[in-house]
Amino acid sequence: MDDALAALQRRLGHDFADPALLERALTHRSAGAAHNERLEFLGDAVLSLAVSAMLFERFGGSDEGDLTRVRAHLVREDSLHRTALALGLPAVLRLSEGEARGGGASRPSILADAMEAVLGAVFLDAGFDAAGRVVAGLFGELIAATDVGAWRKDAKTELQEWLQARRLPVPAYRIAATRGQAHAQTFEVECEVTTLGLAERGEGRSRRAAEQQAARRMLEVLLASDRPDGPLRR
């Protein structure tokens, strides 16, 4: 194995028993039949499981929805692209001459796919524990610095999804009042769920902010109603 691939192994924290797996993981389909797409498929699943396990441990008080949103953020193309750049994958990718001239080594989708393929290669080489250690090394600091709350959906989206999951119509919003001068107005907005006979109001310096507050208050009422002793269960 050449020096560049040996250095990549050190950065990964994994020495391949079968170096051919790493070489294949770095081979784009433009470079030949022995390309990395099958390893990419496998690596996607390995990454998802490893990150899910880390999030499960890190955020013990978070529900499935929050964990799913954070995981989606961590394993998206942009995150994989940045990780691939930090590992120096552009310098070791195997591309056809045409793909290389076209800038393939810097293309986010190609780098993200290669990153997943490398993880798939680690899994085949040494199993899930080894792959999990590599994922922890690559994503551990990012997960430690992640705030679950920053990836929660806004109140209007949460409210709409709560209603749609129960086959109820989406809420209606209307401006109930405006106060103050034009340059410093306060909006009062009413959020109404007509099928349940419920209405809640919110205030804000913009219509959007007022709608969000009204939606949050409505959602709090509806979530309380989901409890056995909730007001809509009586």
CATH class of the largest domain: Mainly Alpha
- Please report which band the strand proportion falls in: under 5%, 5-15%, 15-25%, 25-35%, 35-45% or over 45%: 5-15%
Largest sheet: 3 strands, antiparallel
Structural class: mainly alpha
The main sheet orders its strands as 1-2-3
**Strand tally:** 3
CATH architecture classification name of the largest domain: Orthogonal Bundle
Instruction: Give the termini separation.
Output: 71 Å
Describe the structure.
By secondary structure, this protein is mainly alpha-helical. The protein has two domains: 3-151, Orthogonal Bundle (Ribonuclease iii, N-terminal Endonuclease Domain, Chain A); 155-225, Double Stranded RNA Binding Domain (2-Layer Sandwich). The protein contains ten helices and three strands; from the N terminus they run αααααααααβββα. The protein has helices at 3-12, 19-25, 37-58, 64-74, 77-87, 97-101, 108-126, 128-144, 155-165, 207-225, and strands at 172-179, 186-193, 198-204. A three-stranded antiparallel β-sheet has the order 1-2-3. A hairpin with a 4-residue loop joins strand 2 and strand 3. Helix 3 (37-58) crosses helix 8 (128-144) and helix 5 (77-87) packs across helix 7 (108-126). It is elongated, with a radius of gyration of 25 Å. The N and C termini lie far apart (71 Å). Residues 227-231 have low confidence and may be disordered.
List keywords for this structure.
mainly alpha, Double Stranded RNA Binding Domain, 10 helices, three-stranded antiparallel sheet, 234 residues, 2 domains, Ribonuclease iii, N-terminal Endonuclease Domain, Chain A, 3 strands, 56% helix
